[in-house]
Structure formats: structure tokens, C-alpha cells
Fold this sequence. Notes:
The structure is a single chain. This protein is of the alpha/beta class. It has 2 domains: 5-16 and 103-222, Rossmann fold (3-Layer(aba) Sandwich), CATH 3.40.50.1000; 20-96, Orthogonal Bundle (Transcription Termination Factor Rho, Rna-binding Domain, Chain A, Domain 1), CATH 1.10.720. The chain has helices at 17-39, 43-56, 63-75, 81-96, 106-117, 130-138, 163-173, 187-195; strands at residues 5-8, 122-125, 149-153, 180-184, 199-203, 216-217. The protein has a 6-stranded parallel β-sheet with strand order 3-2-1-4-5-6, with helices on both faces. Helix 6 links the parallel strand 2 (122-125) and strand 3.
Amino acid sequence: MTPAAILxxxxxxxxxxxxxxxxxxxYSRVRLEDxxxxxxxxxxxxxxxxxxxxxxxxxxxxxxxxxxxxxxxxDADRKVAPLKALQGLIWASGYADGAxxxxxxxxxxxxxxxxxxxxxxxxxxxxxxxxxxxxxxxHTAYGDLTPLFACFFDTAMGGKKEAASYTSIAAAIGVxxxxxxxxxxxxxELTAAASAGLMVTLLxxxxxxxxxxxxxxxxxxxxxxxxxxx
Length: 230
């Protein structure tokens, strides 16, 4: 059957893992200190600094201390909300001035457009913030792809390796879990999604694994190709 909705991961699925780790992360890291120092008095950054103090349970931490902690979290790739929010602001600046362009595989752009054209609602679920997701899809070589998606989800819904997260997303979408197809390059995420009742497909862009308990696709071209139902 054709799924009632398609939910996709980003890294390793629609986009290169290298783009995030070799382009986005270094871009935000090298600009972190100067960006916070220059914008500390602005409401968005002031709110981030307040969130850093709350996360660290250090209400008296000054701006330099917050910057040092944010840099430490960045280097450790901590998935904490204030760091994600700051990265999003820095990346937004980079996208706006043309220094950054979101990486999307050609087959992913084509597949997303194909499914959208068939009337299948599309959703994103990534560990990156919703704001960062929209930046990646909003500034691509194929134009602004954000209108293709009905909604974006991040780990505010829960961890990607937790079945309850997918149950919550299904409830938010408003369709039964068994009617949703989830795409990811991480088997542990597929296991969690399958445990919640979702249909799943493993993206294996570097070649199919020797064995997988899940359907495998090397790119989007073979997933619901034109004229073929799931």
C-alpha cells in the first residue's frame, strides 16, 4: 500500500553526514565566541545565555563563562537546546549571506518532489533543531524545498532510538503508525520506529549491508518509484 505519510531522517538519508560534520559544525564552532560576544545583548542570544546558566545550574555564570561552556559542549557534540539554538542563529547568518548552502542528494530532492506530487504528506525527524532543518532544506541547489514538508520534528518529540517518540509523531501527524513510512540510515532508529508500528526502510548510501532485518535502499530512486505503490 502507499503510505499515508513519509517521515525522513536527514543525515545520511537526504543529506551527506559529511555536510553536517565537515561544513556546518566547523562553521559554527569557529564563529561561536565572536557571535555571542557581538550579540549578547540581543533578546535571542540573551535567552540562550539564560538557558546555558539553567542547563549548567550556575545562575551567576557570566557571558565569558557561558561562551566557554558552549564551546565545550560544541566540541563534545552535546545535544543541548541552548547550543542547538545558537548554532541555528550562526548557520542562519551563513545561509543568508550565501556562505552556506544546504546539501541534499539529487535523488532525495527528486524523490521528495515525486512523493509530494503524488499527494503523500512529508515530514522530517532529525536530531538537529527544527530551525536548522528548515535552513538545510530552505537553501539548496534545488531551491527552497521546505514547502514540500507538512511539518518538521526534532528531539523535542523524544530520542530517535525510543519507540515512544514515533508514537508521539504519529499522534501529531494524525494517522496510524502503520500507515507511516520512516526512512533512516541508522538501524537502531528503524528498530525503535518499527517497534512503534511504523513501516521502515534503511538508507544504505555506501552500499547495502551484508544483512539487515529491514528493507534496504541505496538511494531514493527505488523507494515508491513513479507508478508503484509500497
